[in-house]
Design goal:
Blueprint (H helix, E strand, L loop, with lengths): L11 E3 L13 H4 L9 E7 L2 E6 L5 E5 L6 H7 E3 L1
Antiparallel strand pairs: 1-2, 1-5, 2-3, 3-4
Bound molecules: zinc ion (2 copies).
């Protein structure tokens, strides 16, 4: 398969709180840090420990510093690429 454009690819998601709209507030799945089916972000790209994300709810784009770029397993817990 040819590589797809990584911009706003529905197959690349990250479960990170949006700093703009906080749409996870009050969601049971998110509070238990499960991979919620509603509150995920488009993973536009990643550079080291930095994730470039776009919120589905408010289309806000921001950079999230994970702080654990070297530990791959933690990074994969937050993101999932299909
Ligand atoms: Zn948002
Ligand atoms: Zn949720």
């Amino acid at each position: 398969m040819l590589p797809r454009d990584p911009q706003a690819d529905i197959g690349r998601r990250a479960w990170v709180a949006c700093p703009n709209c906080d749409d996870r507030r009050g969601c049971g799945d998110c509070e238990e840090r499960r991979t919620c089916s509603r509150h995920w972000r488009y993973l536009l790209s990643s550079t080291g420990s930095l994730l470039h994300l776009q919120c589905r709810s408010c289309t806000h784009i921001w950079t999230h510093e994970t702080g654990f770029g070297a530990t791959r397993s933690l990074w994969q817990r937050m993101t999932r690429a299909w």
